[in-house]
Structure formats: structure tokens, C-alpha cells
Design goal:
single chain; alpha+beta; M1 Pyruvate Kinase, Domain 3; seven-stranded mixed barrel; two-stranded antiparallel ribbon; 6 helices; globular
Length: 223
């Protein structure tokens, strides 16, 4: 599981275009989080999106470092046991519902192939209010942070046509010296993480620039 050879079965490929999600403080909220499984045999993956996918607020969602969001189905039983949340494909707004691993097995900078495409792990997912609105659970974000069941984003290195049914995400390069997705997420959210550790994490090769900046900023306020 921890070597380069890791093939994660893709249980579902999910997409959605921005649509009405609900109301927050009297304001209309739109989002692409309510993703549905794709029925086509294959899709086109471009540097910013899968075909048929989109984001409503590009200030905080989307962009090259968030082209594809993957979530681990291994977490479903825990969500059901802790919050009574019946999770399934697309529940967390993910493009790829994966089997076979968790965030502890995936490192920032790991390179994967999916059909014709090549992708690299760029960052963990931070919860936002739209996840809580989508699931109707105000406590889902805090639970995600506490448990580090965050999922991860991938940047597209080489676009291409990707298979849907019976496909897998195959790791071709393992950034073993880089932190795992779980580790960097936990260290970021732990108030006890010291400034030197935060700066070291910020220097992780391939880490999304938004995370680099947040880690560096957090480090300046730690003593």
C-alpha cells in the first residue's frame, strides 16, 4: 500500500454544473457540489475540469490545483456510525469516489495515471459552508476536520480521455519523502504545530500555492 505500486479502483465518476443549492442568511447559494454519477463510458479531462463539471465561486473553488477532487469510500462506515450520514458516490462533492486507500496512503506529489491522463496530488480538501448546506448537517465540517477524512485534490499534468466504468487510478510515482494528505491536513489544523514544522510543510514540492501561503501565514503567528 505504501510503495509506488498502488491502484485505486474508481467506484464512481461524478460531475455537476453549478445549480441552486439553498439559502444562507437570505442569500441564494449556487454550487456544483451536488455531483451525480456519470453514465457515459468515457469523459474528457482538461486542465481545469472533467467534461460536464463546474464550480460556482471560482475565488475559492476550481482552478488548476483543484481540477479533480477524490474521496475515499473507506470512510463511509465512520460517517454512518458517527453522524448517521448515509454516504455514497458523490456525497462529499467528489469527482472520483475511490476504494483501496485513505489519505494516510496518499502523499502530496504522488503521480497517478487515469486512462490517457496523468495527475498529481496537490492538496487536501478544506470543508466550506456549502458542504454543510448540501448535506443538511451543520456539524459535518467540524467532524471532517477532527477526523481528517478530507479527501484530496489532483492537478492535471496531461489531459486526455479517461474511462468511467471499471477504471482505476494507478500510482506511477510515489512522493515517499513528502507528507501524506492526512499528515499535512492534521498538522495544519493542530494548534500545537510549531512554526518550523509549518514552514517545512509549506516547502513540500508540488503543494498547491494556496496551501503554501496559508501554512506560511500560520507559521508567522506561532511561537
Amino acid at each position: 500500500m505504501h510503495g509506488r505500486d498502488l491502484a485505486l479502483p474508481i467506484l464512481s465518476v461524478n460531475v455537476a454544473l453549478p445549480a441552486y443549492l439553498g439559502q444562507l442568511r437570505g442569500e441564494r447559494v449556487e454550487s456544483g457540489i451536488a455531483k451525480k454519477p456519470v453514465r457515459a463510458a468515457s469523459l474528457r479531462l482538461e486542465p481545469l475540469n472533467l467534461a460536464g463539471d463546474g464550480q460556482a465561486d471560482l475565488r475559492v473553488h476550481g482552478g488548476p490545483d483543484k481540477a479533480v477532487y477524490a474521496y475515499c469510500s473507506a470512510h463511509w462506515p465512520a460517517w454512518r456510525n458517527e453522524l448517521g450520514l448515509e454516504a455514497g458516490p458523490g456525497t462529499f462533492g467528489e469527482n472520483l469516489t475511490l476504494g483501496g486507500a485513505t489519505e494516510a496512503d496518499i502523499h502530496i506529489g504522488d503521480v497517478f495515471t487515469w486512462g490517457e491522463a496523468r495527475l498529481v496530488v496537490s492538496q487536501p480538501r478544506q470543508p466550506c459552508f456549502k458542504l454543510a448546506l448540501h448535506l443538511g448537517r451543520a456539524d459535518v465540517g467540524a467532524t471532517l476536520i477532527k477526523t481528517a477524512r478530507c479527501g484530496f485534490y489532483l492537478r492535471v499534468l496531461s489531459p486526455g480521455t479517461v474511462p468511467v466504468g471499471g477504471a482505476q487510478l494507478a500510482r506511477t510515482a510515489h512522493a515517499a519523502d513528502a507528507p501524506s494528505v492526512r499528515t499535512i491536513f492534521q498538522k495544519f489544523h493542530d494548534p500545537k504545530t510549531d512554526a518550523d514544522t509549518l514552514r517545512a510543510l509549506a516547502a513540500t514540492p508540488g503543494l498547491a500555492e494556496a496551501w503554501v501561503q496559508q501554512l506560511q501565514e500560520k507559521a508567522t503567528h506561532r511561537h
